[in-house]
Amino acid sequence: MIAFKSKFYRISFLGVLCGDAILIRFWGNDEKYHNILIDGGFVKTYKPTLKPALIEIRKSGEKIDLVVGTHYDGDHIGGILALINDTSFSLDDFVDKWMINFDLPLVDSTGAISVQQLITLKGKLCGDQGHFNQPILFSLNPYEFYGLTLTILSPDAERYQAAHIEIEKKSSLVGSAGNDYEITIEAFSTRVANESPEDASPANGSSIAFLLKAEDYSCLLLADAFPSVICKSIRALEWDENRPLEVDSIKLSHHGSRGNISNELLAITRTLNYVISGNAINTYNLPNKETIARILIHGNRRKDQCFNFYFTHRNDTLENMFSVDGEDVFVRYNFKIHFPESD
Predict the structure, then answer these.
(1) How far is CA 41 from CA 77, 177, 329, in A?
(2) pLDDT confidence tier of residue 160, bands split at 50, 70 and 90
(3) What is the number of H-type helices and E-type strands within the chain?
(4) What share of the chain is helix, strand, coil (3-state, %, to 5)?
(5) Quick one: pLDDT at residue 71?
(6) Which of 100, 151, 240, 277 could crosslink 69 through cysteines, CB 3.0-4.6 Å?
(7) How many CA atoms lie within 13 A of 342 on its CB side?
(8) 268: Cβ contacts below 8 Å, ≥ 6 apart
(9) How far is the C-alpha of 213 from the C-alpha of 266, rounded, in Å?
């Protein structure tokens, strides 16, 4: 687990393999602590990872004030379904509100969950007074939540509709042949001068991504969203290359995939801290080293500022990602990598 914290908030990125599960605890303007769960990881990571964290919240006399299911892939919403099916929790008392585009389908692909399980989720949330009954789409108007604001950046109406078209179709994605960790950062220079082909998965395109702002902290939580959609939304909110959006951290989209970052996104945002929710040992070998190289080499970057990359997992593969670059790579490119104490 990787966590950022201050007097008023704590945001924890749980280690759920190549999945997302984020817990936010903050001091609200009603002078009480509140908790938000964003995604739940896989079904199989629920008991060893997410459930213990939820039990601690319950022990403290608190609850989950908002559950956000960003989209319908199993590495994001699986743990939420596991929570719904966990009879040791009384959800009517433990969860206050749900923010899920629950009418979107779950693709029946490797690592995802079945359409039948989606019906379980629909059955739970249909008619629930705490559920946001309108589609969650980009809006210039943020949600206010006990002093915290959530500005929805993705999906837009086009990507939301595209996900509908994919109902009960299998994902067209295929696994890659291997990782790109044997390529040096310098060798990526020519490649990252141009944009990589953007992710085309309808599931990822339907992701709920947002700008979160608390009293003393701000971050971009990008789920698996498309960079083109995020950039369009950021520009609509009147940030651009001359006035970039500055945040304390960015949770990179799609576990650090090369298809979910762009030079344009880096040009209109500013941060020194990037979070990567991937373990490198997965079907798609995420994160891609090319993503990190793009961030480090980007022309708008100030070379005197040290960048930090926070991984939600620790293993030999990730720790040796930059071995091919030489021992001085962290000095040459002025960055640090951070891991949980244990995986």
Answers:
(1) 6, 24, 32
(2) confident
(3) 12, 16
(4) 30, 20, 50
(5) 87
(6) 100
(7) 1
(8) 231, 234, 235, 239, 240, 241, 244, 245
(9) 19
With tokens 């290359």, the residue in question is 241
**Helix/strand/coil for 294:** helix
Closest alpha carbon to 199 in 224, 164, 232: 224
Q: How confident is the model at residue 327 (pLDDT cuts 50, 70, 90)?
A: very high
Sorted by sequence, the CB contacts under 8 Å of residue 8 that are 6+ apart come out as 26, 27, 214, 215, 216, 217
Q: What are phi and psi of 310, to 5 degrees?
A: -105, 120
pLDDT digits (tens, 9 = 90+) for 218-231: 999 999 999 999 99
- Cα first-last separation, the chain: 8
20, pLDDT greater than 70: yes
Domains belonging to the chain, first-starting first, are: 2-338 (3.60.15.10)
Separation between Cα atoms, residue 268 and residue 307, nearest integer Å: 17
CB 284 within 8 A of CB 257: yes
The dihedral built from the CA positions of residue 315, 319, 323 and 324, taken in this order, carries a sign that is positive
The mean pLDDT of 63-85, rounded to a whole number, is 90
Q: What values do phi and psi take at 43, rounded to 5?
A: -55, -45
Question: Which SS3 state, helix, strand or coil, does residue 244 take?
Answer: coil
Which two three-digit tokens encode residue 40?
A: 């739940």
The pLDDT confidence band at residue 131, using thresholds 50, 70 and 90, is low
The DSSP bridge pattern shows strands 209-214 and 148-154 to be: antiparallel
Dist CA 219 CA 322 (whole Å) = 26
pLDDT band, residue 198 (cuts 50/70/90): very high
- Establish how many alpha carbons lie within 13 A of residue 274's alpha carbon, considering only the half-sphere containing its beta carbon: 25
